[in-house]
Amino acid sequence: MSLTRVIIVILVLISVNLSATPGDTIRLSEMGGKYVGDVNAEGLPEGYGKFFWDYGGNYIGNWKNGVFHGSGRREWHTGDFYDGEWKYGMRHGSGTMHWSVNMSYVGKWKFDQEHGSGEITYPGGDKRTGKWKHGQMHGNGYLISADGTKTKRKWNHGRIVKQKP
């Protein structure tokens, strides 16, 4: 877990109303919004709940010790959304990220980055499918154009190193 996330969890621990009960609306000032849902003995979000940022956007899903953990959906005020698995407040496991520019990634995540098998679809319909490592294409995969043309490629940390039609 990153230092920033640890600090946020600590600040949430300090600011949460310890008398909160499931279903209460809790103001999480450090996160900039309100939470409604299950809480643990310390009054932190745990189990199923909904969080609404003051500036727009929300998270609906599972929590553990005050952070997203398990299955859930986060929507940003920009129209972007992620639907999938979370671990310690980060995208981790299987999930789909959709950006408002009509681009999406479906596949595996590790600590908030694309990592493992996945497919990204670009606004024009072109796709890249294959392996990802730390948020970049890495290893064998395919570029599939919108017209269906399929080209085998090999990536090394996001850079194409080999290409075959």
Plain-language structure description:
The protein is mainly beta and 165 residues long. Helix content is 8%, strand content 60%. The protein contains one helix and 13 strands; from the N terminus they run αβββββββββββββ. The chain has one helix at residues 3-15, and strands at 25-28, 33-39, 45-53, 58-64, 67-75, 81-87, 90-99, 103-110, 113-121, 127-133, 136-144, 150-156, 159-164. A 13-stranded antiparallel sheet has the order 1-2-3-4-5-6-7-8-9-10-11-12-13, covered by helices on one side. A hairpin with a 5-residue loop joins strand 2 (33-39) and strand 3 (45-53). The chain is elongated and about 60 Å long. The model is unreliable at 6-19 (pLDDT under 50).
What brief labels describe this structure?
single chain, 165 residues, mainly beta, 13-stranded antiparallel sheet
Please tell me the overall pLDDT. Answer: 87
Fraction of residues in helix: under 10%
Distance between the termini: 42 Å
Sheet with the most strands: spatial strand order: 1-2-3-4-5-6-7-8-9-10-11-12-13
Order of helices and strands: HEEEEEEEEEEEEE
Rg, nearest Å: 19 Å
Number of beta-strand segments: 13
Q: Note poorly predicted spans.
A: 6-19
- What is the approximate shape? elongated
Largest sheet: 13 strands, antiparallel
| SS summary, helix count | 1
Strand content: over 45%
Determine the structural class based on helices, strands and strand pairing: mainly beta
